[in-house]
Amino acid sequence: MVPVMFLLLIQLIALLNGYGVEARIRQYKWEVKNEFKSPDCYRKMVITINGRTPGPTIRTQQNDTIIVEVTNSLFTENIAIHWHGIRQIGTPWFDGSEGITQCPILPGTTFKYQFVVDRPGTYVYHAHYGMQRDSGLYGSIIVGLPDGESEPFAYDYDRNIILNDWYHNSTTEQAVGLSKVPFQWIGEPQSLLIHGRGRFNCSSLSVPSSDPGLCNTTNPDCSPFRLIVVPGKTYRLRVSSLTSLSALSFQIEGHNLTVVEADGHYVEPFVVQNLFIYSGETYSVLVKADQDPTTNYWITSNIVSRPAPNTLPGQGVLVYYPNHPRRSPPTIPPAAPVWNDSRPRMAQSQAIKARRGYIHIPPAVSDRVIVFLNTQNEINGRRRWSVNNVSFTHPHTPYLIALKHNLTQAFDQNPPPDGYDFLNYDIYERHPNANTTSSNGIYRLNFNSTVDIILQNANTMNPKNSETHPWHLHGHDFWVLGYGEGKFDMFNDPNKYNLVNPIMKNTVPVHPFGWTALRFKADNPGAWSFHCHIESHFFMGMGVVFAEGIEKVGKLPSSIMGCGQTQGL
């Protein structure tokens, strides 16, 4: 159990830093269990929180303490919940990453997460055990400013929307296929969900079912998402993506979207018609209800960066009050962006800058540069994703505990490589990568050092193919210094870095056959995952772990132990 005095000390430090308002303690009790739901009209077993998916929205304020008591009522599965975007300063053991910061929560047991939300913004929570996020265990975290403070943009109402893709196969079925020889890919999703609601074409089932309830388009579970707006009012839409695989575009027919926040940081405002969003990202956009109020309008999501001809778009309705909520728009849904045109996606990435007056200047130089080559490989006939030809595997003992208690046998003590063969590796060719290995070794970072990460994309096992990878860093925000096409030039590209007004984020895409450059301070004691946020890719080894300042980590709570070599500690 985390000492209460420790959390009170964190709140006191926040007050002394000028926040000057009383922090609150907000408590939640959640029961996680299996239920049959039909979010896209097709019935399957999902994971719910208090009977809901998406789960309850946590609404709180900066410097509040969040206490969530999670009871695992699943019959046969462990769980862990990650608080995505919450840096867990002083509480790295409650990051919620199974195998990295905690042992899993066993069926029939209750676990208490307790942490302080130190920054306002839009965040999410989700399962971080196996591929359970794909089963519906996710939700939103909305952190407001302290009372009396205001944001640099005005709006009348605040709403949140989670975008997702949806598979009919269970995560266990998917995991078995990804692990088998020969390799069995999960395929494209059956549907796209807008805040937990989508529409599958029941007539497309290959084998008609005798069960009329298996796929029923009249099921209220899959009635379209509807957002009711008052004419003339401005809405802040907090849009998050927790897709299992897909990169998405999001649009509202006939309405501009003004981007003002990304991953909890204010953005120099810019206007889009399509918001490109990748798994793990969160944005706030301002939408004014300034169109013809006698009609309703489509809200849509579409897959980009992958061909998915059989996946129906996500569809919702923007309802102008007092129109009837069930009145469909008189038009056909707007056309989707061309799925394989990466230029507008790259342009949006490059357009995201920190807002004037809210710029955090990065250190001018870094102490260490690590280049991560993203490749697809085979190890002993099994398809894997790798970083610098090393495919990540989880240990049985969580890293944070192993490092704090010096359990040197718990994981490989040899660090993975900091780079690859820059001169000779052709990122446009399919490589056998015969020297690929698997490892659970980690990167040890000097505490308070400045680290540059270069994400380098390359060809997959398929000819002339490179995929979009959204990378998420736990425990930190990073500065996005730049994006580029082709192979990163270590001599010239750093001269193009944006050191004036780079946005800070916790999740960022690396585009096909491109690179993305990040910089962060290793100033948060703990063990932190950095991984592709696509469920199947991380499951197949696309991730690393950073350790920093372990000697500064406080006494670990006994509640996170009980697996691997932690038994008996």
Task: Write up this protein.
The protein has 569 residues and is mainly beta. The protein has three domains: 22-148, Immunoglobulin-like (Sandwich), CATH 2.60.40; 150-358, Cupredoxins -  blue copper proteins (Immunoglobulin-like, Sandwich); 366-564, Cupredoxins -  blue copper proteins (Immunoglobulin-like, Sandwich). It has five helices and 32 strands. The protein has helices at 4-19, 171-179, 343-351, 399-404, 535-539, and strands spanning 25-37, 44-49, 58-61, 65-72, 81-84, 110-116, 121-127, 138-144, 157-166, 191-194, 225-229, 234-241, 247-252, 257-262, 265-272, 275-277, 282-288, 297-304, 314-320, 368-379, 382-387, 390-392, 437-439, 443-445, 450-456, 469-473, 478-485, 504-505, 507-510, 514-521, 526-532, 543-548. A six-stranded mixed sheet has the order 10-9-12-17-14-15, with no helix packed on it. A hairpin with a 2-residue loop joins strand 14 (257-262) and strand 15 (265-272). The chain is globular. The protein starts with a helix and ends in a 21-residue tail after the last strand. Mean pLDDT is 94; it is low at 1-20.
Compact overview of the structure:
Its EC number is 1.10.3.3. By secondary structure, the chain is mainly beta. The chain has five helices and 32 strands.
Blueprint of the fold:
Blueprint: H1 4-19, E1 25-37, E2 44-49, E3 58-61, E4 65-72, E5 81-84, E6 110-116, E7 121-127, E8 138-144, E9 157-166, H2 171-179, E10 191-194, E11 225-229, E12 234-241, E13 247-252, E14 257-262, E15 265-272, E16 275-277, E17 282-288, E18 297-304, E19 314-320, H3 343-351, E20 368-379, E21 382-387, E22 390-392, H4 399-404, E23 437-439, E24 443-445, E25 450-456, E26 469-473, E27 478-485, E28 504-505, E29 507-510, E30 514-521, E31 526-532, H5 535-539, E32 543-548
Parallel strand pairs: 1-4, 3-8, 9-12, 11-19, 20-25, 22-23, 24-32
Antiparallel strand pairs: 1-2, 4-6, 5-7, 7-8, 9-10, 12-17, 13-16, 13-18, 14-15, 14-17, 18-19, 20-21, 25-30, 26-29, 26-31, 27-28, 27-30, 31-32
